[in-house]
Each structure stands twice: as C-alpha cells, then as structure tokens.
Amino acid sequence: MPNLEHPAYPAATLLHLESLVPCRESQVSMLLSIFGERQQFSFPSIFIYGHTSSGKTYVMQTLLNTLQLPHVFVNCVEYFTSRLLLEEILIQLQSCSSEAEETSHVPCDSFNDFVRLFKQAVGSQELQDQTFYIVLDRAEQLREMEANILPAFLRLQELTDRNVTVVLLSEIVWELFRPNTGCFEPFTLYFPDYSIGHLQKILSQNHPPEYSADFYAAYINILLGVFYMVCRDLKELQHLAVLNFSKYCEPVVRGEANERDTRKLWKNIEPHLKKAMQTVYLREISSSQWERLQRDDGEPGQLKGLSAHTHVELPYYSKFLLIAAYLASYNPVRTDKRFFLKHHGKIRKTNFMKKHEKTSNHLLGPKPFPLDRLLAILYSIVDNRVAPTANIFSQITSLVTLQLLSMVGHNDQLDGPRYKCTVSLDFIRAIAR
C-alpha cells in the first residue's frame, strides 16, 4: 500500500514519487497536505531546515519536478546580493510562462520593482490558475542582505495578491533567522538526519547490475560499520561506496571466494577501508589516483602531493615557530636544558621515573606553554640569529588564526599569553622536512 496519497494527483505519479524519495515519505506527505490542490492557495511561506545531506534540496526538486508544479529554484550562495537574487527569480519566472517568447534580462533595483514585475509575470492565465513556488536554497544568506528582504519574501503572497508560496531551505533553525523587528512566521518543517537503517536502504539501491542486491547490501553494511561513527553525510558515503567497491569484489573476480564468503571479503577490504578513513571529507586525491593507489598497495601519503600536509605553505620562521610550539607542548619543562643547550653540564643518570611519566606525552595531549618558552626554543633551533621583531609576533598571531596554535586563557592576563600546539606529529614531520 503506497504511503503517499492525495486526491489531486494520479496514484501512479505518487507511487513514482515515493520510489524517488526513500525514507522521506512522511516529510513529502506533509508537504503535499500543505500544498493542497494546484488551484488552491498554499501557506504563504514554508521554512525547511535540517543538517547537511538530509535531503532538503533533493526532496523539494524531486517533488516539484515530478508533480510538474510551476516553480523557480535559486541558490542564495550563487546569487549573493538582493539585486542578483530578485533578477534571477524574474528570469526563471519568464521561462515558466508559455506566453514569453524568450528569456531576457530584467533590471530590478528594489523589492518594490520586484513586486510590480512579479505581478506582471504571473498575469498569464496558466500561472494564475495554480500555485507558484519560489524555492530559496541556502536561505541563511538572506540574513546578509538588506533588512527588508527576508520579511518581504515571507509575506510575498500578501504583497503581490497572487497565489505564490516561498519555500526557504536552510541548515540552521528559524530562531536564528527571526528579525528583531518581528515578521510573518513561516510554517516550519524539520528534516531529521538519516539513520543507519535509512542510509543502508538508500545506498543499497545503487547496486551494480552485474552483482546481486544481497551482495551489494552486505558491502554497504560493512562500509557503514566502519564509517558511520565518523561520517553521516550521504553524499560522502555514496562517494566512498563507489570508490571502494572494486576492491571488495577482487576475491570474487579472481575466483578466490564467492559472494557469500563474507569473512574472506572483509579481510580483503579491511586495510583499504582504514586507508580511506584518512581521506574522509578531505578529497585529497581523485578517484583515479585512489584506484591506482589501491592497485599498488601503497599508503595514501606515498603519492606525491596527496597529503594535505604537503600543501601547507607557511613563511620561513612560521615553520620554525610551529616546530618550537610542538616541542614545547609535548616535552616537559625540565628537559629544555638538556635538549636545547649545548653546554648544559653533566646529566646524572637515574632509573627513577615518576608514575605518571610512564605514559606517552602524545597520549596525554598537548600541554600549554608561555610565550617566552616558545621564543627560547625558537632561538635554539634556528641556525642564524633571530631578532624578536614585530614580524615574529605577528606570525604567532597568524598561526593562532589558522588554528595551528590555540591560545589558552585571556589576552589580558598578567603573566603573558599561553599557547597549545594543535597539530599532529605527522604534520610536524612534514613541516620539518
């Protein structure tokens, strides 16, 4: 029995729509009930929010295109000023009207002009007989525009006296949108994150025709078991599924295992999934480079130019400052004299170790250090003499801005600022080379 039912649309169309939006049937059903029939007035404005990759944009595009509802779809990041945004809506609106012969540029300097031109554009009999939808994706950018833009869009139906609904798509909640002066409250609809069961169902739909659905579903189950705790992004998981499937199939292709030998397939794919964990979200390498890397059984950092660490370009002394900060964070203060002074005197050998010093400092994390200790280590590791100029101090500030260092405490503390080094040992090794 289909989950989507509406008297205004054919059952076959709704069944097709349901197949296109898996795990979002309740949200689509709610939108259908809000939209009503084509000729009915819908709610003036709808605010849809949810985390990234929760299906907001895809569901709206699929819903409007499948039901063939007249609409314009505008990304507010691409059209980042009010003039560009309003003109793009009018240009797309022209193409929706069958009476318009060709799309032309329409100058629109203010929202008053937009209301006037919008009323003219939807004056055709075809658009008057049904609700027109304006979908604004990444709507949080509207907050950076003029103060009247957001309130005017929310009550566009009232201003134009036309059957129009404005749909705002955003990743942040409505409370961060609401102007201080107040505005018309939109109908809010939340898109929750996909659960692991939803991701399993959606990803399993893309199985290659040469393999059975159960075989690909088992592969997706393994993939989610590894990546679900660190990555919930559907697009990223789709990319990882496509990228690593050929490696999962290798024992089957070579004839060493059949599709039911899950244990043997897992042992083959496990080390490669661990390598892929290092590049989640980073896009450090292309798909072709990753496939070549898997054939060669190499490490991700072995291909020249793949690691993000090799792309970090820092000034000459900033690199030494970062190395000095790492040494200050992970070495105890009492070892500075032994490590950084040439004539430090005789060191008495002893087997005595405090109980807490048996733990590796890398496991305990970075320790804060004062500015004078950082500069003292810097002067000892740089070959030539370094003057404590404003340039050195500005580079320390730049490292904090880049989040390679973090400041501990407040700027106005009497004993001077304290810092922590936030980068890993591999990063420092790449810088030191």
TrEMBL record:
Q: Provide the ORC5 lid domain boundaries.
A: 216-283
Q: Which residues form the Origin recognition complex subunit 5 C-terminal domain?
A: 314-433
Record has Nucleotide-binding as a keyword: yes
Q: Which SUPFAM superfamilies match?
A: P-loop containing nucleoside triphosphate hydrolases (SSF52540)
A GO biological process this protein is involved in? Answer: DNA replication initiation
**Which residues are in the Orc1-like AAA ATPase domain?**
21-167
Record's Pfam families?
Answer: AAA_16, ORC5_C, ORC5_lid
GO molecular-function term, one example from the UniProt record: ATP binding
Instruction: Tell me the superkingdom of the source.
Output: Eukaryota
Which GO CC terms are listed, alphabetically? nuclear origin of replication recognition complex
Q: Which UniProt keywords apply?
A: ATP-binding, DNA replication, Nucleotide-binding, Nucleus
State its location(s).
Nucleus
Family that this chain belongs to: Belongs to the ORC5 family.
What subunit structure does UniProt give? Answer: Component of ORC, a complex composed of at least 6 subunits: ORC1, ORC2, ORC3, ORC4, ORC5 and ORC6. ORC is regulated in a cell-cycle dependent manner. It is sequentially assembled at the exit from anaphase of mitosis and disassembled as cells enter S phase.
Described by its record, this protein's role is as follows:
Component of the origin recognition complex (ORC) that binds origins of replication. DNA-binding is ATP-dependent. The specific DNA sequences that define origins of replication have not been identified yet. ORC is required to assemble the pre-replication complex necessary to initiate DNA replication.
Protein name as it appears in the record: Origin recognition complex subunit 5
Taxonomy of origin reads: Eukaryota, Metazoa, Chordata, Craniata, Vertebrata
